[in-house]
Amino acid sequence: MVGIVIVSHSAKIADGTKELALQVAKQNQPIQAVGGISTGEMGTEPMRIKMAIELANEGQGVVVLADLGSAILNVDLACELLPDDVAKQVVLADAPLVEGTIGAVVEAALGSELQKVVKTAEAAKTIQKM
Fold first, then answer.
1. Each residue's pLDDT tens digit, 66-108
2. Extended strands (E) in the chain
3. Residue closest to 64 by CA, chosen among 13, 10, 7
4. What is the helix, strand, coil percentage profile of the chain, to 5?
5. pTM of structure
6. In this structure, are residues 14 and 8 in contact, taking their beta carbons and an 8 Å threshold?
């Protein structure tokens, strides 16, 4: 199954998004949340993101969703630290964090391939709320 990694500057946002995603997830679906830095402050760290990717990786790829600019930069750095064969199967989705995560989790739970999970996550950009 495609793994999902949620990256936020805030541990509460990452954990809350994961909690929401687990409501629609398949049992034992690989979802990792990484928020804040190791001291408990706001921010993101490439090594923590790398570890989350490794934990979420079951061999079918990993979709990463991130909140803000430096999180995106640190996802890129984390991927550089991964072995090439793993890094090639990691995609940072251009999607809103919460809505994109939910779409990705539902699509992954259906057993879809990596690119379909990414496409579904990114389609969340077009969801109209009114």
1. 999 899 999 999 999 999 999 999 999 999 999 999 999 999 9
2. 3-8, 31-35, 62-66, 90-92
3. 7
4. 50, 15, 35
5. 0.95
6. yes
